[in-house]
Design goal:
The protein has helices spanning 2-16, 55-64; strands spanning 70-74, 79-83, 89-95, 98-102, 105-107, 114-117, 123-127, 133-139. It has 141 residues and is an alpha+beta fold. It is globular and about 35 Å long.
C-alpha cells in the first residue's frame, strides 16, 4: 500500500507539471495537422529505418506548431502504462524499438516518424527492444 501511494504521489506531481489544457476552439497552427487518434504524420518517411532524426530540426518544427520538445531515454523493457494528458502529445522515436499503445491500438513508428497522441487518450509506452531507447516527446502549449 505504501509503495502504491508513493507512485501515485509521483504521478500526481508529474501531471501537475504538464502544460495547461488547450481549448478545442483555439485555432490550430495547421488544420491539416490536427491530432487524429494515433496517426503517423511523418513529414518525410525514412527509408533507412536506422536513421536518427535531427533533434534540433524536430524541435524547431514542433515549436512552430505550438509544441514543446524534449528527449526521453528508457532502459530495455521499460513500460509506462495507462497515461492520460489534457493536451495533445507528439512523439518521435530516435533510436530503439518503442511501441505506443493508444486506446488499445499498438503503433511501432520507425525512427523519424511522428506519432500524435490526442488529448485525453489512454496510452502506454513500451521499450520492446533489448537496448536503450531514445524518443522525443512534446505537449501542445
Amino acid at each position: 500500500m505504501r509503495r502504491s501511494l508513493r507512485g501515485f504521489k509521483r504521478l500526481t506531481a508529474y501531471c501537475r507539471a504538464l502544460p495547461p489544457p488547450v481549448s478545442i476552439t483555439q485555432d490550430w497552427p495547421r488544420p491539416h495537422r490536427r491530432c487524429p487518434l494515433g496517426r503517423l504524420i511523418s513529414m518525410e518517411r525514412n527509408k533507412d529505418r536506422s536513421a536518427i532524426p535531427d533533434q534540433a530540426a524536430v524541435e524547431r518544427d514542433w515549436r512552430e506548431r505550438g509544441f514543446s520538445c524534449a528527449l526521453w531515454i528508457d532502459p530495455p523493457g521499460q513500460v509506462w502504462a495507462d497515461f492520460v494528458h489534457d493536451t495533445d502529445e507528439l512523439v518521435m522515436v530516435c533510436e530503439g524499438e518503442v511501441e505506443f499503445e493508444i486506446e488499445g491500438r499498438a503503433h511501432s513508428p520507425a525512427p523519424g516518424e511522428e506519432l500524435c497522441i490526442p488529448a485525453r487518450a489512454l496510452h502506454t509506452v513500451r521499450n520492446r527492444g533489448h537496448t536503450e531507447s531514445r524518443w522525443l516527446y512534446g505537449y501542445r502549449r
